[in-house]
Amino acid sequence: MYIQLWWAWGLMRKYNFWAYMVRCSDGSLYTGITNSVKRRLYQHNEGRNPNCYTYSRRPVELVYAAHFDYVLDAISWEKKVKRWSRKKKEALIKRDWDKIEELAKCKNVSENFRPIKIRKIKYLVRGKTCVILRQGSG
Length: 138
Hints:
Blueprint: H1 2-12, E1 17-23, E2 29-34, H2 37-46, E3 61-68, H3 71-82, H4 86-94, H5 97-104, E4 118-125, E5 128-135
Antiparallel strand pairs: 1-2, 1-3, 4-5
């Protein structure tokens, strides 16, 4: 229990953490977190680990970095950005906040959406009134 508390306390301590994005030589974007952007960029370009995403996509170029005081904030931002579309990431790199807002809008419902008109049709079946709902024009 003592170790768990110590580990949790370490997550809450104030440090310098960065969420960053690099553009790889193939044009893809890689997002990560670090406590030293300069060192991490060097590590990506040095290619120490052949299993890393950026290893075969070197050289990489830093295109975005955001500072956080707490590691959990940096991790949260990194996870959010990783789920974004390519267009939204490019807008973030350009600091185009209007474009980010536009791309964040829900696209599931057409802007020209009109509610379907429903009409009730009553008819008799064996002396009982039945109602069905149908799409109608009026």
